[in-house]
Amino acid sequence: MTALFALATSLLWGLADFGGGLLTRRTPALTVVVVSQAVAAAVLGVIVVATGAWGEAGPRLWFAVAAGLVGPVALFSFYKALALGPMGVVSPLGSLGVAVPLTVGLVLGERPGPLQFAGIAVAVAGVVLAGGPQFRGAPVQRQAILLTLLAALGFGTVFVLIAEASSSVTGLFLALFVQRVTNVVAGGTALWASVRRGSAGLPGDGFPWRALPSFAFVGLADVAANGTYSVAAHLGPVTVAAVLASLYPVVTALAARGFLSERLRGVQAAGAGLALIGTVMLATG
């Protein structure tokens, strides 16, 4: 079941990233983050009230608050890095955040079997290659590399924090709600500061009301991914759950191929194949 929920996480995060990428073509990235997370927070608020999840409030919620603060920083750093450096270099480096939960799991005493260790190595290599790393062309700015590594550290930290934020299903609903509210507050503050400095907060033709269902999809898919990852991390080794959940760049690349007819380069196709092989090794090891 750990593999099933972790793979569901990759699917949901991959589709959320793909949808968010499409939205940012017309709407500022900060606005996409704030609106999508606000929709998710509203839906989660209804669920929390309906399930009586407030009764699960406790010290664990501080992990959700921390995840809500770290998440926007990671996203903003990632978007800034994409603007500074070649996407073919930035994208695969961002997936290296899987090292954080892997390290935490090993420190806590998790010891995957030999086949799973090999699967971890194969899957991580596949994820990096699926991003289509390319080091030719425009030089990679040092700031872009540093921002990407900061984003990767943030993504990996969110993996760890959200897994610790709850111990029950209703508690998970509450933790995700708190995380999203924190995301909206932190992201909204950053958006307000950006607009005050003269940056655009909306497209030239105003708020994209017709795209609201897309905003909702991105926010809810991201929430669902956090939830399935938390379940996966509780059902089995964090080392296995984290690696399988980190396959989302493969999903994003395949979605771009299917919906936008973007061609996969040879290295990306090879990476997707390695990721699939690593997944099988992890699930059967």
Automatic annotation (TrEMBL):
One of its GO terms (cellular component) is membrane. It comes from the Bacteria. Belongs to the EamA transporter family. This is EamA family transporter. Residues 3-130, 144-283 form the EamA domain. Keywords: Membrane, Transmembrane, Transmembrane helix. It holds the Pfam family EamA. Gene3D superfamilies: 1.10.3730.20. It comes from Streptomyces fagopyri. The chain crosses the membrane at residues 32-54, 61-79, 115-132, 144-163, 231-255, 267-284.
